[in-house]
Amino acid sequence: xxxxxxxxxxxxxxxxxxxxxxxxxxxxxxxxxxxxxxxxxxxxxxxxxxxxxxxxxxxxxxxxxxxxxxxxxxxxxxxxxxxxxxxxxxxxxxxxxxxxxxxxxxxxxxxxxxxxxxxxxxxxxxxxxxxxxxxxxxxxxxxxxxxxxxxxxxxxxxxxxxxxxxxxxxxxxxxxxxxxxxxxxxxxxxxxxxxxxxxxxxxxxxxxxxxxxxxxxxxxxxxxxxxxxxxxxxxxxxxxxxxxxxxxxxxxxxxxxxxxxxxxxxxxxxxxxxxxxxxxxxxxxxxxxxxxxxxxxxxxxxxxxxxxxxxxxxxxxxxxxxxxxxxxxxxxxxxxxxxxxxxxxxxxxxxxxxxxxxxxxxxxxxxxxxxxxxxxxxxxxxxxxxxxxxxxxxxxxxxxxxxxxxxxx
Length: 409
Known about the structure:
Elements: E1 8-17, E2 20-21, H1 23-32, E3 38-39, E4 50-51, H2 59-63, H3 65-69, H4 73-88, E5 101-106, H5 112-125, H6 134-138, H7 142-151, E6 157-160, H8 166-180, E7 185-192, H9 197-206, E8 235-243, H10 244-249, E9 256-265, H11 278-291, E10 300-302, H12 309-323, E11 328-330, H13 333-336, H14 343-357, E12 359-360, E13 376-377, E14 383-384, E15 389-396, E16 400-407
Protein name: Beta-ketoacyl-[acyl-carrier-protein] synthase family protein
Domain Ketosynthase family 3 (KS3): 5-408
Family: Belongs to the thiolase-like superfamily. Beta-ketoacyl-ACP synthases family.
């Protein structure tokens, strides 16, 4: 006879995003509904010269100069977020059983900034100008490796790479490790720091980015009639996952439960979602089934909502079809921009905060809902409401889809 699957809880959160460093700063900015997009001098020669960067991030002060110099920026962001999440969960890595701690973290571009800098050094000054740390800083697996070193996690460690769904995939994968008994604690999340001239130019050449250069702060406008593309961003989000019974046994009340997880692939196009939303619908329905709830039970959705003309309509119509008209929908990318692979983890953390606070954040820059949509999108100011069941949606290039259902404890 099989045993019932264990409930998995989120016990700690950590955030380093354009909305601020730390959970408290992030939540204040997200609730304000004020965009973080601004001109970016490091992108001045690119087709799009604005972005959403993490403000006032000083790796020397936060990590120590020697440690910071050994880590690519995406890993720096991840380490700071994870340290906050672990402390928030009430754990001390010096005293836990590291063999029972796993790391599952997502990224897409890895240390692309370090790689581009190394190539420029090679081209301009020759081989001796290239740092011997170039490869360890660039490799996408190194975020999990470096995090494991930093917190002494000797259980399973891996990186998920499902493009902009990577963070949600990491949380879902970590949940399954716990339910199988492979570990007792999972540090899950994602990090991205790809605001480089090459990456941003590539995204612009694809037609994915907003061209609203005259008003960057108004450029990320999910579900709005006048949206024209997303604003690139960076950041990291971390969630500490444990079996809920274990958390309660040590006197820790879970923030939320990870009630359901669903994933799917469109198998349609490398960058465009399936036009009918069939792929992302399968992921959402599977997450709802896994959580044992109906679409009409969902109180709040943190949508993928990137501010692209096609993606927002495909997702919005799917949400209306599956959930009905009741759910209060938000896209926090109006504030943060699109942090690519880190988005799913950051937004899962925001969703957990919304459940805990009973507050749905507003969608920044939403002034006229797209006429193709029939959704209750929160705009202007936060909305207080009981949130017992919430959904965080993620979609990625390559047709990757992931959905998380978070429930109140």
